Amino acid sequence: MKTLEIQGTIRASIGKKETKALRNEGLVPCVLYGGGENLHFGVEEKLLNTLIYTPSAHIVLLNLDGKVHKAVIQASQFGPVSDRTIHVDFVRISDDKKVAIDVPITIVGSSDGVKQGGNLQLLFRKIRVSAIPANLPDSVVVDITGLDMGKSMFVSEIVADNYDILTPKTAVVATVKMTRAARGAAATEKK
Q1: pLDDT 10s digits, 10-69
Q2: Which of 44, 58, 122, 168 is the right S-S partner for 4, CB 3.0 to 4.6 Å?
Q3: Please, are residues 71 and 62 in contact by the beta-carbon 8 Å criterion?
């Protein structure tokens, strides 16, 4: 899994007034949970945007006043009008404990249903997996080679190596729907 380092400064005081002053300086208030002590800190919005606005999943090395913490994003909040990042929660991870994280799906192969004029619909862009940090995949590969028209691929059909899939096994990952043009062509063939 990809690793990204982010610099931050620990906040001495917390509260509404201090948080507003922090945002006015161009920083985003963040919290690091886990490991006993919760740390409140601020990070430049540009640095967080490279982490948040990407389809990839990352392990984050938080450099807070010279001390490095390994973490992943737990939650992020956005402004209702400006859509700017207003708060991010991180959770500490360790090399020997499993962590649950959303990982992007990569589609490989060529579906027979798409070749026949069907439309491939991807119902999940990310899937939740659990593993120790060393075994976390960059993406989960889904092979759609045998997917015919009107058929669906379920989470239970995904092969997982060194990690567990936490998304329900009955959830549909991808399906091939018949387009109007394909329906029209099938109707004319029957006549």
Answers
A1: 888 788 888 888 888 889 999 999 878 889 999 998 888 888 888 888 889 999 988 899
A2: 58
A3: yes
Please tell me the class of the 2-93 domain. Answer: mainly beta
Distances 109 to 50, 115, 148, 170, 177 between C-alpha atoms, Å: 30, 11, 12, 22, 17
Q: State the architecture of 100-190 in CATH terms.
A: Beta Complex (2.170)
Domain boundaries, the chain: 2-93, 100-190
Tell me how far CA of residue 82 lies from CA of 44, 78, 90, in angstroms: 17, 8, 22
Q: What angle do CA 65, 67, 68 make, to 5 degrees?
A: 120
Rg (CA), the chain: 22
Amino acid at 174: A
Sign of the torsion angle spanned by Cα atoms 54, 60, 64, 66: negative
- Tell me the pLDDT tens digit for each residue of 74-110: 888 998 998 888 899 999 999 899 989 889 999 998 8
